[in-house]
């Protein structure tokens, strides 16, 4: 089947870069006025000026989709989510609004362990429905690729179940067994990491249930030394590496991720100059998650400008989870990135598409509109890409296509 998407006021191709964009290149959207995209069997044949694409022999008889003077661009790549998480943590939310801290909420039975209980006691059907509903909302907001971490089961069976659900729903699965230490480990985090590293993680890798392994390196979770051991074993299992680091404390855990060649280090709200310099001099992508700062009511966002100016590759993601970032909206993340972290609209779009793709080691398949790549794209009812973050909390996505097929269409 061949499809022609025509009539775009602005076509953002994000084409041309072999790797993630850095520095001034983040502002290069590969913008084409009055552009068109030609798709055959889910793969892009051409993306360029409309008069040229529409005259191609392959465009004859193609099914047409009229962008009606809107913006056509790659679908968002949400490279950091906790997709499968069970019920929302509404009690945590109320406690936080009443002044309780993250640590106080956890001590009162909330936080990650609350979600652990929810995941362990929920049926597979309930977890599938929760995750599927979230994916539908993500699609309506223009997301076409979603990473999904485990980490709310924290025992063998629950973690495997969450990874299976993520895989079956088409997400990119990441094993986050090292989220926190569960109660049955009696506070012995070293013993818990030894168990998951030598028994659970090798089984998950053998079954092909995860592409990445992740660890939460911060106060109340795991130390940089523990992260080094855990991630080293993950690498030995054939898994690629990710990290949560520098979220609440400047632990320098991110330096471990850079040292071990992690694909991305995420959060970085407390990143200091040495971490920024290390990321800038490495292939590790700095994935920033402003939604969690906003929802927690904090005022220290990740140092996006310093990272960009130092030359680090920056990505953006929702951090969708029930405790600190219950949002499925990448457009809202772009608004936060621009307003709170002073990223330019073009930088934010690059970070949420092509750089997000590289944060999942999928830059050869998604994140830009180029011949040979998957036809994952969105049509927005705006005439200028800068309107996407400008109208915060507003969803302008009219049509979302995954491999050329419409997966969500918002009403006109």
Description:
The protein is an alpha/beta fold. The chain is built from 16 helices and 16 strands. Strands 1, 2, 3, 4, 5, 14, 15 and 16 form an eight-stranded mixed β-sheet that branches. It has an eight-stranded parallel β-sheet with strand order 6-7-8-9-10-11-12-13. Strand 15 and strand 16 (405-409) form a beta hairpin. Helix 5 packs across helix 6 and helix 10 (273-280) packs across helix 12. The protein starts with a strand and ends with a strand.
Average residue pLDDT: 97
Radius of gyration: 21 Å
Globally, the shape reads: globular
CATH architecture of the largest domain: Alpha-Beta Barrel
| CATH superfamily grouping of the largest domain | Metal-dependent hydrolases
Q: What does the secondary structure layout of this molecule look like, with pairings?
A:
Elements: E1 2-12, E2 31-40, E3 43-49, H1 50-54, E4 63-66, E5 71-74, E6 76-78, H2 90-97, H3 102-107, H4 112-121, H5 124-140, E7 143-149, H6 156-168, E8 172-178, H7 189-206, E9 212-217, H8 224-236, E10 240-245, H9 253-259, E11 264-267, H10 273-280, E12 285-288, H11 290-296, H12 304-310, E13 314-316, H13 330-341, H14 345-352, H15 354-358, E14 377-380, H16 387-390, E15 397-402, E16 405-409
